[in-house]
Amino acid sequence: MAITASIGFPRMGPRRELKRMVEQFWQGKIEEDELMARAAELRRLRWQVQKDHGVTWMVANDFSFYDHVLDAACLFQVVPDRFQGLAANSLQQYFAMARGTQDATALEMTKWFDTNYHYLVPELKPDQVFTLGVNKPLNEYLEAKALGFDTVPQLIGPITFLKLSKVVGAKADALALLPSLIPAYQAWLASLHEAGVAWVQLDEPALVLDLSDAERQAFVDAYAALAKADRPNILVATYFGSLGDNLATALELPVEGLHLDLVRGSDALRHVHALGWPKGRRLSLGVIDGRNVWRADLDTAFAHLEQGVHLAGAEHVMVAPSCSLLHVPWDVELETDMDPEIRSWLAFALQKLDEMELLRRALDEGRQACEAELEANRSLLASRRGSARLNREDVRARLEDAKTWDLNRQSPHAVRKEKQQARFNLPLLPTTTIGSFPQTQAVRDARAKWRKGEWSADQYEAYLRGEIKRWIDLQEEIGLDVLVHGEFERTDMVEYFGEMLDGFVFTKHGWVQSYGSRCVKPPIIFGDVARPEAMTVRWSTYAQSLTDKPVKGMLTGPVTILQWSFVRDDIPRAETCRQIALAIRDEVLDLEAAGIGMIQIDEPALREGLPLRRAEWQAYLDWAVECFRIASSGVRDETQIHTHMCYAEFHDIMPAIQAMDADVISIETSRSHMELLRAFEDFRYENDIGPGVYDIHSPRVPSVEEMVQLLRRAAEVIRPEQLWVNPDCGLKTRGEPETVAALRNMVSAAQEMRASLSQPVR
After folding, report:
1. Where in the sequence numbering do the catalytic residues fall?
2. Which residues are the active-site ones (predicted)?
């Protein structure tokens, strides 16, 4: 008989219970004992709902207080020296690594493959020693067993762990540390074997990447060594793409099971058939999309499963999602206010479990036993495809017309820069922020009162205007050169715009973890996108009316809106992105016409959207850059276009960043200590750039000296006349006192740096 598998499940809970308990612990409102008790109850709930929905393969250790890669680092005692003074294996040390302290910067953070989930980058020494620490995977397995749940301990695999880590203080390949790491994995596997664990799941999404021959050999060597240990059976889970030329390597591994993502690698079974499936090996088939929210085409999924049965035998097949369900919300049935027709098209985590269980029944009992449910699925898919709500002729016609537009700015950047400097008269190293200011409890309370009807629209708008004025005054007093209105009217940088665009629908409980306790509610794009009316002009013009200094108009770019939404799957992603770009272009031109001279079009997700295989990069970059230029190229030379990107490696996409032709780009660099800036040196980037000088994901307030040091490093790479001074990212999640203190230090650092640059060379 086939089994239903959940290779990972949402952590936060149906109503973000994990977020609340962790933040209360950080704030000192609950003690560690209460945090642990509430976390145990949430883990019990997660296992119970999976069991109730027919899951027989569910994992232990997919729960995390912050990040699963950080958990793996702690399991193997990979703790940088700056955190060694804290109690070993304590929550204090764990959260210090994640968030930093006043005396120690946090671990670097970046995107988990091509998702919007952020992981913490383990820091390794060239002579790193790996030892087995507190055995969280085993402890959670035993916890589940005591509650009556049969689980499978799960952990990131050794090759993916090393490929996602960095060696500090040396230009060394982390994979060179594999011989040191393998004994720690062997010890971990032995501990599970001794406890009676039958199966373990090792996640190796790195197998979907472009790998060198040496990296493929590293997989072979690593798993050959693990096979020799006293151990449970191993299932290697791959996801986020097709294995392609790494399939033969995956099939060669001496393991008892392999998971394949058939949503993003639909041709995988054809290639498996050509190479041959190892007899007796378990085959986990990811036939349900773990990264999007649409009901599955169950006929197509069933056809894949039948192929799998032909290859491996029904008793060895697992019906699974393509990847962990971490990337989708908990339960669509919580969305009682959503349009019923659109809701019927959606499947969140619990509904995906039901789809998998239905497919398992069809495999075991025969298709006819489930024909009524399969026919209902066909009717549902047909109703969505045929809905008049999806397609708009006016949007399609405008897209055709846009193909004839010149998407270049009127003049080259050097010419524009002279005109912009004449208009704004900015000092060397102008200071600004990325856009948002703290969304305090008072701001959230005001929004809640308005939404509940306790405040009128006029009362709420008056409150927001008061906050904008207070922060404009505060920015002037701090001494910032370019101001922002603070975005107090916005819940989220994507959701806010989606709420005012046609073609989007929203959830109330569709939360997805982004990093740590930070959750987002991705909009759902169900139809063609258009802008009915201006979205930001009144807030930006009001803020500009309060000051003589320039105030940036703040927009989210088309690629980021696309990437951070659940996107329709019936048309190409590029087409949806172009539709969004046209809507943002209209907003840009309206802001310019209203007198806003600086407009920031944030694209933090541009690098995130890059396909995992290099052969697919150029096609993506071509349409991603085109979409940015659709949005930004219609303005006059005197209007300064900014963009912002964060937590990404830029070396390989510098030509695309230059082709975007933004006047100013701001990027995250503080957690990497300006390492990311080397890409701009190697490429000789010509436009202006603001490398972040302090990390906004940490509550610590960096000193003036620390930021001056970072600016000096930046000035070694980028000409001072190109440099801007800003934080890494928006300040929405920070507290007000720390924000003000950090910005004061940032302005002082810029002033000190200007003074040093003005001194004559002796």
Report:
1. 697
2. 697 (proton donor)
Backbone φ, ψ for residue 284 (5° rounding): -95, 120
For residue range 21-75, list pLDDT tens digits in order.
999 999 999 999 999 999 999 999 999 999 999 999 999 999 999 999 999 999 9
Domains in the chain, start-ordered, CATH in brackets? 3-388 (3.20.20.210), 418-753 (3.20.20.210)
Looking at residue 642, the DSSP 8-state letter turns out to be E
Annotated binding residue 116: yes
Known binder of ligand: residue 564?
A: yes
User: pTM of the predicted model, to two decimals?
Assistant: 0.91
Query: CA nearest 19: which of 496, 733, 506?
Result: 733
Closest of 310, 314, 269, 312 to residue 287, by C-alpha = 269
Q: Is 140 annotated as a binding residue?
A: no
**Is the distance from CB of 405 to CB of 698 less than 8 angstroms?**
no
Residue 690 forms beta bridges with which residues?
Answer: 666
Q: Is 405 annotated as a binding residue?
A: no
Q: What is the pLDDT of residues 442-497, one digit of tens each?
A: 999 999 999 999 999 999 999 999 999 999 999 999 999 999 999 999 988 899 99
Mark residue 501 as left, alpha or beta (left: phi above 0; alpha: psi -120 to 50; beta: remaining).
beta
The CA dihedral of 465, 471, 473, 479, to the nearest 10 degrees, is -150
Rounded Cα distance between 36 and 32, Å, is: 6
Q: How far is CA 192 from the centre of its chain?
A: 32
